[in-house]
Amino acid sequence: MYTLTQIYTGLSGLIIANTVATGTRYLGVMGTLTVPGAPTGVSAVAGNALATVSFTAPVNNGGETIDYYTASSSPGGITSATTSPTSVVVTGLSNGTPYTFTVYAHSVIGTSTASVATSPAVTPTNPCPATGGTPTSDATYCYNTYTTVGTDSFVVPSGSISADVLVVAGGGGGGGNTGGGGGGGGVLSLNLSISGSNDIGVGDGGAVNPPWYNGSNGGDSSFGTNIAYGGGGGGTDQGYGGNGGSGGGGGYWSVKGPGTGISGQGYDGGIGDPTFNAAGGGGGAGGLGQVGQVISGLACGGNGGEGFVSSISGSSHVYGSGGGGGGGAGNGTIFGNPAYGLGGTGGGNGGAGQGEGTGRNPSAATYYGGGGGGAAWAGSGLDPWSGQVGYQGIVIVRYLKQ
Q1: In what order do the strands lie in the sheet with 23-30?
Q2: Residue 298, Cβ neighbours under 10 Å: how many?
């Protein structure tokens, strides 16, 4: 009696043997196994330094399961493998070079012949070719954002692009001891044709100085030769507001004048008023700083001027708002007026009286270029307060995907 046994499946087919007590006798081969057929319908779509190659699996698998597929580029012979029976992504390609692709099927028996090459050739490109800053993109636009204080560059490697550019300078520091609010950093909103390498500068916010001194102006920001000027520092209690992108607010003593803003970049600061014992607000990129005044019986620092609203980053933000002016003394009256000061709005809020003399910084995401709040009056016998620092600038470049 003989028992049929499968002892090998391979290149020559299915070999059947009968096994007897004295050994094995080969009876022959059933069928023939071959390499798979070549994939068909091959096409390619280029991307950024890559291509997606699509294909149809062969009808003839040669009698064995197809384990994987490979695509190979010409030129370069760059390959990529996949177990997907429909497509493979080939990476590591050179942008600007035309490529064609062939696809192979692989099984345990061997490798198919090459498919028909894709036609026409496809050329990978970078849809966002410019470099510099922090590059990001969405479905429509490329963005290069600069938030590090100092210098950088925006480089278009070839040709030219049309781009929207927002340049925001640093906000001015607030004045000390019932001081005016810092002016918002100057803002430029531009549309430019850009090529080659372009210098970028991002200005810092104006510094805080000793309480009896004005706040410092903010640093300038720039794109090429286009300069947005730093916001003017707020005047101390007896100081004038500084000139800048937007002017700093004046101190309250003896009706100190505000700083002047630069036309096309920002507005003037607000004047201080000794009658109300309140300093003026810093000017903003979108409006004038306000005069100190009494509101609901309280001596209030003038509001900072409104900032410039832009959606260049993909969402709406306010840039270059003015700092609020410092309010009056706490716990009592001065010159017969209620002395608790409310901070202004816009950039950094002004000091709110004896309990909050240094003012408050704004949210960085909303108030790039915001002026610092002016300090409140600290009260008799107490050390005077310093103003609040201005917030740094920013540069944003946006252009359509190529």
Answers
A1: 3-10, 13-20, 23-30
A2: 19
- Tokens linked to 308: 């410039």
Tokens of 127: 């849809």
For 157-192, the pLDDT digits (tens) are 999 999 999 999 999 988 887 788 889 999 999 999
Mean pLDDT of 309-327: 85
Tokens of 96: 């600007």
CB count in 10 Å sphere of residue 397: 27
Residue 299 has pLDDT above 50, yes or no: yes
- Token readout for 10 is 């391979």
Beta-bridge partner residues of 47: none
Task: Pick the closest to residue 230 from 250, 245, 247, 208 (CA basis).
Answer: 245
Helices (H) and strands (E) in the chain, counts: 0, 22
346 CB burial (10 A radius; 0-12, 13-18, 19+): buried
Query: Token pair of 218, please?
Result: 């903010």
Provide the whole-model pTM.
0.80
| Three-class DSSP category at 266 | coil
Asked if the model's pLDDT at residue 346 lies above 60, the reply is: no
Query: What gap in Å lies between CA 375 and CA 386, rounded to an integer?
Result: 6
Q: Cis ω on the peptide bond leading into residue 384 (within 30° of 0)?
A: no
Q: Exposed, middle or buried: residue 379 (CB in 10 Å: 0-12, 13-18, 19+)?
A: buried
Closest CA to 242 of 207, 200, 197: 207
